């Protein structure tokens, strides 16, 4: 029998996905071609990003169709294509066949993605929706709250990956609600372990900053963090290369502190 007192070990090197949506937000505020999100993606690659995330929203408020085409052509690291579960987005994903597709909830009036996808109420539709994406070779992930019911539903529909929404934890930290922060962190920890126990690969993201990254990075089951808005904001002051390298260093530090040499692999 396994030794219950043995320290946990991470499942592998913690990957960093950099979301470049808000480079496009700045570009679109004025129009024209600058700043270029594809240039940002290349800089992120050079700074140590393991992947690039881009969300093609239905209203095209930041990333546009041409951006996706250029990213697919330019990247040497995987593209994580965030999208709503609509026929239009499915067709675009099947045309480009990115490495990964992450299904997220989407409402026109929201400023950013709020909450996780409601999988449990739409199991049949979502199961049929992701089937052709998986057949096309895309790694399908579902962006969900740290809720056992939603995690179980994601597993039932055949999604191999979930991304846990870390927004409630990060918001509580930023607002100084320490008891709520600790409760949310415990929920994330428990649900990451549960998801792994039923065979899912676990990612996490939303609202993560330099101050909030290390506790999440220390979860042994988490294989990837996706971080965007904060890094683009920090890049205004320190540059994108510096911002990404600092986040990468904090992630690696958290792994080493939690797991010793095993966390540095």
Automatic annotation (TrEMBL):
One of its GO terms (biological process) is pyridoxine biosynthetic process. It comes from the Bacteria. One of its GO terms (cellular component) is cytosol. Its EC number is 2.6.99.2. InterPro entries: Aldolase_TIM, PyrdxlP_synth_PdxJ, Pyridoxine-5'_phos_synth. Keywords: Cytoplasm, Pyridoxine biosynthesis, Transferase. 1-deoxy-D-xylulose 5-phosphate binds at residues 21-22, 57, 62, 112. CDD domains: PNPsynthase (cd00003). The keyword Protein biosynthesis does not apply. Pathway: Cofactor biosynthesis; pyridoxine 5'-phosphate biosynthesis; pyridoxine 5'-phosphate from D-erythrose 4-phosphate: step 5/5. 3-amino-2-oxopropyl phosphate binds at residues 19, 30, 207, 228-229. It catalyses: 3-amino-2-oxopropyl phosphate + 1-deoxy-D-xylulose 5-phosphate = pyridoxine 5'-phosphate + phosphate + 2 H2O + H(+). It is an enzyme of class 2 (transferase). The active site is at 55 (proton acceptor), 82 (proton acceptor), 206 (proton donor). The record marks 163 as: Transition state stabilizer. It is found in: Cytoplasm. One of its GO terms (molecular function) is pyridoxine 5'-phosphate synthase activity. Belongs to the PNP synthase family. HAMAP family: PdxJ (MF_00279). Homooctamer; tetramer of dimers. Catalyzes the complicated ring closure reaction between the two acyclic compounds 1-deoxy-D-xylulose-5-phosphate (DXP) and 3-amino-2-oxopropyl phosphate (1-amino-acetone-3-phosphate or AAP) to form pyridoxine 5'-phosphate (PNP) and inorganic phosphate. This is Pyridoxine 5'-phosphate synthase. It comes from Paroceanicella profunda. The gene is pdxJ.
